[in-house]
């Protein structure tokens, strides 16, 4: 069996800023890890949910976010602060600042990763796709020429 070359992936923390909606861009990915940059004009991941196949963390790059857990307890975090969400932890978040919210999201997957949004579950166990109406998804409207970088 021939050895497969494993190569590093380089990425840049850059995303358009938004006047409406949200944007989610994968920057790098392996079989056990994924890095994304996310931008929210308002709102956030508005429906309480969990991921069954990953631990992940959010680091605030710009703006402020208010995170809620299953018990309704909130944490408000800002630039250069973060939150770690172990798999199975329920959460939702929203932008609560006066500028677009920009997040770095890093996920570590279990080896038997569930593909697609099927691992993203609502409290009643139903799948809750991130781009669904149920999750209050809004299409992005870019502020022309404005970027986080």
Quick rundown:
The chain is an all-beta fold. The chain has one domain (15-128): Jelly Rolls (Sandwich), CATH 2.60.120. It contains no helices and twelve strands.
Give the helix/strand layout.
Blueprint: E1 15-20, E2 22-29, E3 33-40, E4 44-51, E5 54-62, E6 65-69, E7 74-77, E8 82-85, E9 91-95, E10 101-109, E11 120-121, E12 141-148
Antiparallel strand pairs: 1-12, 2-3, 3-10, 4-9, 4-11, 5-8, 5-10, 6-7, 6-9
Structural account:
The protein has a five-stranded antiparallel sheet, with no helix packed on it. Strands 7-6-9-4-11 form a five-stranded antiparallel sheet, with no helix packed on it. Strands 1-12 form a two-stranded antiparallel sheet. It has 149 residues and is an all-beta fold. It has no helices and twelve strands. Strand 6 and strand 7 (74-77) form a beta hairpin. The protein starts with 14 loop residues before the first strand and ends with a strand. Helices cover 0% and strands 51% of the residues. The protein has a single domain, classed as Sandwich (Jelly Rolls).
CATH superfamily: Jelly Rolls
**What pattern of helices and strands is seen along the backbone?**
EEEEEEEEEEEE
Integer tally of domains = 1
Q: What is the SS-derived class?
A: mainly beta
Looking at the overall shape, the CATH architecture is Sandwich
Shape: globular
What's the level 1 CATH class? Mainly Beta
Rg over CA atoms, rounded to whole Å, is: 16 Å
Determine the number of helices (DSSP H or I, runs of at least 4 residues): 0
The largest β sheet comes out as: 5 strands, antiparallel
- Contiguous uncertain segments of 5+ residues: none
Strand order of the largest sheet: 2-3-10-5-8
CATH topology: Jelly Rolls
């Amino acid at each position: 069996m021939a050895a497969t070359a494993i190569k590093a992936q380089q990425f840049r923390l850059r995303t358009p800023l938004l006047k409406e909606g949200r944007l989610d861009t994968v920057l790098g990915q392996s079989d056990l890890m994924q890095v994304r940059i996310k931008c929210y004009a308002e709102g956030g991941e508005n429906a309480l949910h969990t991921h069954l196949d990953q631990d992940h963390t959010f680091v605030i790059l710009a703006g402020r976010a208010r995170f809620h857990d299953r018990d309704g307890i909130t944490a408000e975090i800002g630039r250069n602060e973060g939150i770690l969400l172990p798999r199975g932890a329920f959460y939702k978040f929203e932008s609560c600042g006066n500028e677009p919210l920009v997040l770095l999201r890093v996920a570590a997957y279990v080896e038997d990763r569930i593909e697609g949004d099927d691992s993203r579950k609502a409290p009643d166990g139903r799948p809750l796709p991130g781009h669904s109406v149920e999750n209050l998804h809004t299409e992005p409207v870019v502020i022309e020429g404005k970027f986080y970088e």
